Amino acid sequence: MSDEIKVDKTMDLKGLPCPQPVIKVSKGIKEIQVGQVLEAVTTDPGALADFPAWARTSGNEILKTEQGSGLITFWIKRVK
Amino acid sequence: MDREKREKLLGLFQSKLDRPMRYYLDVCTRCGLCKDACFAYASVPKPEYTPVWRAEVVRRIYKRYFKLSGRLFPFWGESKEVDEEALKQLNQAAYTCTGCRRCMMYCPFGIDTQAIQSIAKLLLIGNESEPEILSMLADASIEKGKSLDLYKDSFIQGIKHLEKEVVAKWKGESDQVIPLEVVGADLLYVALAGAHSIIPAASIMNAAKENWTLSFFEAVNFGAFVGDPRKTQLIAKRIIDEAIRLKVKEVVICECGTAFRVMKHLVGRQPFEVSHIAEVMARYLREKRIRVEKDRIKGVMTYHDPCQSARNSGVIEEPRYVLHQLTSHLVEMTPNREYNLCCGGGGGLVALENEEFRQETGRAKADQIKGTGATILATGCENCHTQLGFLNEKYHLGVEVVFLTNIVANSLVLES
């Protein structure tokens, strides 16, 4: 978990088949309030492009992305 | 529904009315031969799961607005107004059909139910009542194409992280384990977002000493799933433009049936060949560019033909050639090949919230798998893999569901 960001919901998306990670994140973001932050952990390298593209089209904001040990973690703020 | 909206929807309907479509809408005699062909009806014999029922609302709207009898005598016969009720029925029909086109194989007139459902989907898009999630995913794919430079660096970084796993499987050394942006590469491989779609294929292509490059884009086409022709083309265009820019000779689509069918058959003639990864693996094996150890994978194996790559695109013999190199214990399903039963996950259905539907309508497929006595179930499509895994769990089939690329990569005989 990132030290600077307060996380309101965490989603484990490791090993899910296409396109479940983006689907689950788009559902998960609706379960938090505007201004709150969703932490999503995935193993999909394609998510590094797919999540930011989804965030732009859905009007949400990716605050931070981290990679390590095969895991990719996104911190996404619900904007609208 | 106000007049403006109705006219908009009828305009969309009209846009689909080419000669084959009019034929599909005109010639059905309701003989019912299609009903037993549908995996959904074969599992749960509800009238609403028959292809003829699915097409009926579209057909009645067609009669009402595009046939003389319906225009002159709208209250006579079987014509139907475009209204909220009709749209609700269209939604139920269109997004419970995987577009597998098995019914077309049995219809004496060759009526293409998927084509008819494309009208239903277009009307629902026009009414903004299509499944939001599919449109959202299509929009994200298009956005990625428009703003690739924003995402390129992080994608490259993510791919670098995968290279260790590829080397572990391939045990080779190269400056480029997963090559990107190789101008003049022979082959552009278009994967899905997950590592499972990249690592085995990379291992195989490296073992074959292929001059290849990985696409920045995911193969899956959500525009095709939702039924939006404009988005389908925009999503495919990202890959076409990339292939042309890199001057590749061949675009190879990963184990994703719809992505393959769109690129192979629905985007017009392009200056490159289009192949399914199963075709490429068969080619490597025939040309002895890769070697595999037969029966390294233990157990009786069966193969599920994905509808979009097999029945609808003709990739039928190549997966079998590959499997016969891997195992002495291949058992075919009955029926199979172009007559294989749909698993029930295609057409984007696995992306929707419909587990109960997918479970009940997957019963025929589950019975078919059970009948083989296999312990390993191979397939070559992501949607099928997901749905078959789901059926495996729900019906306690006791099989391991595997991708073709994965079992080939795991059977590679590598030079020391």
Describe the secondary structure blueprint for this structure.
The complex is a heterodimer of chains A (80) and B (416).
Chain A: E1 9-13, H1 20-28, E2 37-42, H2 47-58, E3 61-68, E4 71-77
Parallel strand pairs in A: 1-2
Antiparallel strand pairs in A: 2-4, 3-4
Chain B: H1 3-15, H2 19-26, H3 39-43, H4 51-66, H5 68-72, H6 84-94, H7 102-106, H8 113-126, H9 132-146, H10 148-170, E1 187-190, H11 199-207, E2 212-214, H12 222-226, H13 229-246, E3 250-253, H14 257-265, E4 273-276, H15 277-286, E5 301-304, H16 317-326, H17 355-361, H18 363-372, E6 376-379, H19 382-394, E7 400-403, H20 404-411
Parallel strand pairs in B: 1-2, 1-3, 3-4, 5-6, 6-7
Helix pairs in contact in B: 1-8, 4-6, 4-8, 6-8, 9-13, 10-11, 11-20, 15-16, 16-20
Structure, explained:
The complex is a heterodimer of chains A (80) and B (416). Chain A is an alpha+beta fold. Chain A has one domain (9-77): Translation Initiation Factor IF3, CATH 3.30.110. Chain A has two helices and four strands; from the N terminus they run E-H-E-H-E-E. A four-stranded mixed beta sheet of chain A has the order 1-2-4-3, with helices on one face. Chain B has helices spanning 3-15, 19-26, 39-43, 51-66, 68-72, 84-94, 102-106, 113-126, 132-146, 148-170, 199-207, 222-226, 229-246, 257-265, 277-286, 317-326, 355-361, 363-372, 382-394, 404-411; strands spanning 187-190, 212-214, 250-253, 273-276, 301-304, 376-379, 400-403. Chain B has three domains: 3-130, Fumarate Reductase Iron-sulfur Protein, Chain B, domain 2; 134-286, Rossmann fold (3-Layer(aba) Sandwich); 301-411, Rossmann fold. The longest helix of chain B has 23 residues, at 148-170. Chain B has 20 helices and seven strands. The model of chain B has no long low-confidence stretch (mean pLDDT 95). A four-stranded parallel beta sheet of chain B has the order 2-1-3-4. In chain B, strands 5-6-7 form a three-stranded parallel beta sheet, with helices on both faces. Chain B has 416 residues and is α/β, with parallel strands linked by helices.
